[in-house]
Amino acid sequence: MADKKAPAAGWPVANGEYVVGNPESCVAVVTLGSHGLDQAAIDAGAAISGPCHTENLGIEKVVANYISNPNIRFMVITGSEVQGHITGQCIKALYENGIGDDGGIIGAKGAIPFMENVGTEPVGRLQSQIVECIDLIDVEDTGKISDAIKNCISKDPGAFEEEPMVIELEGGAAAAGEEEGGLMIEGIPTVAEPDIESMKSLNEALDYKVGLMTRDIGLASGVQTETVTGLMYGSVFAVALIAVPIALKFLMG
Description:
2 domains; transferase; alpha/beta; 5 strands; Rossmann fold
């Protein structure tokens, strides 16, 4: 039996919307933009499985959770690719190429593939710890995913020789539940407290402007009504002034 190690205390260290299985399993699964695949991955023997939507903070959380458990030696990337973010390709690029001096993932095609809270050391740890990255991007067939997981388990090399590495994700790991709901909805900003006084002032100003507009519409409507009435009376008088002399002349012969 392959040697195992205890993961970091409280693992997974980055809170999020994922499913956790046996922490001694050698396989971790990223289901990208798909839902409904995670429990099947756990049932097949994965240590952890969850979606990941963004190519920055989302991937940072994946890294944090994987390197804090030395038992994870295989990474399966599956589920539908996230349009725009191209998260699956970015994760592969991170594993294969690492990051540059600016924190950008080398060869990544996503919109903003930058690691702000994960440096070269954690990335290097991920590259060393993970012995194989299985590309099942855009695959949602749970049978194929389960087979891939079981195949990895059959090749389990045992725990990585180094102890768990725990990294602090500023605004990420500690505040995952507040900021983005974990691996599923990364990058959504927190809700600010409303400024009640400003809102009241705004409402009062809007009420005033609406009142002015209502008054102007009423005045314009009244003027228009009076104008139409005046035109009607004028037309009647004009017709009478013309018709009466003609009628008298006709009657008098």
